[in-house]
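User: tokens in, sequence out, please.
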């Protein structure tokens, strides 16, 4: 090759390389701190859709790395395809990548027209509608790794994991109503099959985090495993009429956490019962507590943020909401309407909307 031609070829190659470098999106530094947000969207006195729209908008303004939505609907709402699709459309409007953690209200109490349990059929339908590919919801997509890619567990697409900043994040299907454990003989196959899938999922997650030497592992679930709580011995425990549907999974998480050198953060999406907030021994709302390397976030309200600082000894910090929505919004609305009624004003359509 002639010297001039060689120089021209090198110039073209260099120009292409520079252009590619300029066009490539900047990747966040692996050690850069970031936040994620967990949202709830069904609250007393307000409609689920309005709550969800407002909460997603609040989350978007905070610019988190991703958002985790606590369930699709409340237990009192219909288990219909129409509602499932309607909520999916709303969740997809999130500007940030959004992952869904299935809640008990989404499927466990669903019944058909004859009044019989329709839980498994509805669960499978949700899987088809929400978890049919390897992408998150939201306008900015995040690639996920689903348990359904394993042939043996191809039904469990709701269990997914992703990684950021040296931390592994994962969802796991553990409904809050005692893990959907049914005491009736011969009717517990759903629980038993899901336990086998969840056990394999947890072993895979902890094994991966340990092998890659990741700093932390975050598990999102609906039900509270209570793995971080000191279990005292009780003679009455063995005589309990109600089987603990979380017992085996709790034991497994504790065992795996003891062998993992990093931090394990459990984030369950069930909010504490208001009247139990002041009960003796109850964990206060809006806290992050630890037992060894096992941490637990108690969520409260509609919007919670957790900061992740790779390389920091604490790794996780619960971020206080500096701009919370007004407390007692439903009551404030009623008072406002009553005041207008006294003045002879009738609230219009725009005034009824949040």
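Assistant: Sequence out:
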């Amino acid at each position: 090759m002639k010297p001039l031609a060689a120089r021209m070829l090198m110039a073209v190659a260099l120009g292409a390389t520079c252009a590619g470098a300029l066009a490539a999106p900047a990747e966040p530094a692996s050690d850069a701190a970031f936040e994620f947000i967990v949202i709830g969207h069904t609250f007393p006195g307000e409609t689920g859709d309005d709550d969800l729209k407002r909460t997603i908008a609040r989350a978007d303004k905070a610019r988190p790395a991703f958002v985790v939505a606590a369930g699709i609907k409340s237990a009192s709402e219909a288990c219909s395809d129409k509602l499932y699709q309607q909520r999916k459309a709303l969740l997809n409007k999130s500007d940030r990548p959004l992952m869904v953690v299935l809640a008990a209200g989404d499927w466990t109490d669903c019944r058909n027209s004859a009044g019989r349990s329709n839980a498994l059929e509805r669960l499978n339908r949700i899987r088809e509608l929400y978890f049919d590919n390897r992408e998150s919801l939201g306008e900015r997509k995040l690639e996920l790794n689903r348990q359904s890619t394993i042939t043996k567990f191809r039904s469990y697409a709701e269990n997914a994991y992703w990684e950021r900043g040296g931390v592994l994040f994962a969802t796991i299907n553990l409904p809050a109503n005692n893990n959907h454990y049914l005491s009736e003989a011969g009717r517990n196959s759903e629980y038993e099959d899901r336990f086998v899938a969840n056990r394999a999922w947890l072993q895979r997650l902890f094994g991966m985090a340990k092998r890659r030497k990741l700093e932390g592992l975050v598990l999102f679930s609906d039900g509270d495993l209570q793995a971080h709580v000191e279990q005292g011995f009780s003679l009455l425990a063995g005589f309990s009429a109600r089987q603990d549907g979380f017992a085996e999974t709790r034991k497994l998480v504790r065992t795996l956490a003891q062998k993992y050198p990093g931090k394990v953060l459990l984030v369950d999406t069930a909010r504490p019962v208001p009247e139990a907030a002041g009960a003796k021994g109850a964990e206060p709302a809006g806290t992050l507590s630890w037992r060894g390397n096992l941490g637990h976030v108690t969520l409260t309200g509609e919007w919670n943020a957790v900061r992740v600082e790779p390389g920091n000894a604490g790794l996780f910090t619960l971020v206080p909401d500096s701009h919370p929505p007004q407390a007692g919004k439903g009551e404030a609305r009623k008072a406002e309407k009553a005041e207008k009624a006294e003045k002879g004003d009738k609230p219009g359509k725009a005034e009824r909307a949040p």
